Amino acid sequence: MSRSVLLSVVLIICSAFSASAAGSQVPGTATPSAPNVEWTKFGEPGSRSGPHRTIFVTATDERFIPASVTVTKGQTVLFRITSRSTLKHEFAIGDAAFHARHEKEMAAMPDMDMKEANAVTIPPGQTRSLMWRFTKAGDFIYACDMPDHADAGMRGTVYVH
Ligand SMILES: [Cu+2]
């Protein structure tokens, strides 16, 4: 292999790596990993052909504003969550079963930072994004599953029609 061909191969590999790294910057972006069975009950990571819609959410010390949103089945939604709080929060989308399990996880590891397709940590005063596609009709939940936060009111409903 000549030196220039070798160099091009190295460049192609590098750009493939940086493309996949860029894709993973926004939680909720589709990745080639195996589908998560738990997620399929309430949706899937948003595809890059989306989003169809952006929803702005504010996190205060003990609630999310708005407290509910309505979306159309099949829509990919880019959530832009801005903290107006001095506390660390998370924004997690799921059904009741997901949140029940994830609350226990956060109780055991309250310092854990989330950067999953359906859950992201929101540091105090900062904005984070999450892109999710709602593939099932029904009522789902966005909540902060850090210890006691959802019970204090940090919970909202996604109505999917
Ligand atoms: Cu919180």
Structure description:
The chain is α+β, with helices and mostly antiparallel strands and 161 residues long. It has a single domain, classed as Cupredoxins -  blue copper proteins (Immunoglobulin-like), CATH 2.60.40.420. It contains 4 helices and 11 strands; from the N terminus they run H-H-E-E-E-E-E-E-H-E-E-E-E-H-E. Strands 4-11-10-6-8-7 form a 6-stranded mixed β-sheet. The protein is globular and about 35 Å long. It starts with a helix and ends with a strand. The relative contact order is 0.22. About 12% of the residues have low confidence. The protein binds copper (II) ion (CU). Copper (II) ion binds next to loops. Copper (II) ion (CU) binds next to loops.
The helix/strand order is HHEEEEEEHEEEEHE
Under the CATH scheme, which class? Mainly Beta
CATH superfamily: Cupredoxins -  blue copper proteins
Number of domain units: 1
Q: Segments where pLDDT lies below 50 for 5+ residues? A: 5-24
Rg over C-alpha atoms, rounded to the nearest angstrom? 18 Å
Portion of residues in beta strands equals 25-35%
Q: Brief description of this entry?
A:
The protein has 161 residues and is α+β, with helices and mostly antiparallel strands. The chain is built from four helices and eleven strands; from the N terminus they run H-H-E-E-E-E-E-E-H-E-E-E-E-H-E.
